[in-house]
Specification:
Blueprint: E1 4-13, E2 17-27, E3 32-36, H1 43-51, E4 58-63, E5 66-67, E6 78-81, H2 93-103, H3 108-122, H4 137-151, E7 155-159, H5 167-183, E8 187-192, H6 195-201, E9 204-209, E10 212-217, H7 219-224, H8 229-234, E11 241-250, E12 253-258, E13 261-264, H9 267-272, E14 280-285, E15 290-292, E16 300-310, E17 314-321, E18 324-332, E19 342-347, E20 353-355
Helix pairs in contact: 2-3, 2-4, 3-4
The structure holds adenosine-5'-triphosphate.
């Protein structure tokens, strides 16, 4: 078991492209950290540098007590699971699982014990004699996981391991990985572009953009207190609604206003917005923080329904508010509502977010 520390980690590809910028990250022993961000943000490069598959340009990587900057992958005591399972097609599942241990000259008895244990955890007992092509995608991914488990490494590294699987299987594998981590709490770094995967798996989530870390926090913290507008829009599905609003500080109350929308903000928000009187800020409101009908005083506004997405468990309403774009609301599945309806929506005033339009940083008291 080991902690991982990244200090001022940088990666340049050639002389022009700066893919990873001053990344500082401390991952505790046994912690599960999810690295998430849009395509090209540098998350895979970061993971591959931890694995030793990519040279680092500057900075330090520490695994446990050792600086591993120049150690080859095989000496880092890590196991990596990729998107394409990279199983040996001509070998049985058993031999695939045994491969790494045989290379380390482990005795066959120990190998059998390790495989028994891993196969039990992953439900592979019935398929140990099959070849990978006789397995489904999910089963192959379980074998790939099993190959990591039998090696009992200090660190698990996952590079988008679930993105080849269909939605149902992905959800199942997510649960298996979570269960696995509960059974063998190994320090893990999981790279994904899927924020749901990151939120559900990570003890903490690291959000990256253009090579830089934007925020590090628990799933609840990055959802509830996003560090900037980018994180606010990236975490949460459907995404947070953003509306450009003018701030009016009036005697006893502060309101934010856009065409067709006027909200009287809560006392803490009013304090935060005190310096913004007469200026514009970006209002952020999550679809789940809009309710149908008249809510608290100063919280309601009119909207026209443009699209109704019935999901069975809930309805997503795409609405137009005043002259500006679409505002998405999440309402109960049983709601009788149709395209073209004029409705009243209310915001939960305690759950609004505000961002400075220039810096995109949150406006907080
Ligand atoms: P994705 O989800 O698409 O894999 P990512 O966040 O994992 O994205 P990286 O694979 O880390 O992104 O790549 C970061 C940036 O570095 C990208 O813009 C990519 O084009 C660039 N890059 C990656 N590998 C190389 C390379 N070998 N040479 C030059 N540029 C590279």
């Amino acid at each position: 078991m080991a902690a991982i520390t990244l200090s001022k980690l940088n990666k340049h590809y050639g002389s022009l492209f700066h893919a990873v910028k001053d990344v500082d990250l401390e991952i505790a022993d046994r912690e599960f950290v999810a690295l998430v961000g849009p395509s090209g943000c540098g998350k895979s490069t970061t993971l591959r540098m931890i694995a030793g598959l990519e040279d680092i340009t500057s900075g330090d990587i520490r695994i446990g007590e050792r600086i591993v900057n120049h150690l080859p992958p095989r000496d880092r005591d890590i196991a990596m699971v990729f998107q394409n399972y990279a199983l040996y097609q001509h070998m049985s599942v058993y031999d695939n699982l045994a491969f790494g241990l045989r290379n380390k000259k482990t005795s066959e008895a120990e190998i059998k014990a390790a495989i028994d244990r891993a196969a039990g955890m992953l439900g592979l007992h019935g398929m140990l004699q099959r070849k990978p092509k006789q397995l489904s995608g999910g089963q192959q991914q379980r074998v790939a996981l099993g190959r990591c488990i039998v090696r009992n490494p200090q660190v698990f590294l996952f590079d988008e391991p679930l993105s080849n699987l269909d939605a149902k299987l992905r959800a199942q594998m997510r649960i298996e990985i979570k269960r696995l981590h509960a059974q063998i709490p190994t320090t893990s770094v999981f790279v994904t572009h899927d924020q749901v995967e990151a939120m559900t798996l990570g003890d903490r989530v690291v959000i990256m953009r253009e090579g830089r870390i934007q925020q590090i926090g628990t799933p609840l913290a990055v959802y509830g207190k996003p560090a900037n507008k980018f994180v606010a829009g990236f975490i949460g599905a459907p995404a947070m609604n953003f509306i450009d609003v003018a701030v009016h500080n009036e005697a006893g109350a502060t309101a934010v206003e856009a065409a067709g929308l006027r909200l009287t903000v809560s006392a803490p928000d009013a304090r935060a917005l005190a310096a913004y009187g007469g200026r514009h800020v970006i209002l952020g409101v999550r679809p789940e923080h809009l309710v149908l009908g008249e809510g608290a005083p100063g919280a309601g506004f009119d909207a026209r329904v443009e699209v109704v997405e019935q999901l069975g468990s809930e309805i997503l309403l795409e609405t137009r508010v005043g002259s500006h774009g679409v505002t998405v609301a999440r309402v109960a599945a049983e709601t009788a509502i149709a395209r073209g309806d004029q409705i009243r929506l209310s915001a939960q005033l305690g759950r609004l977010h505000f961002f400075d339009p220039e810096t995109e940083l949150p406006v907080r008291a």
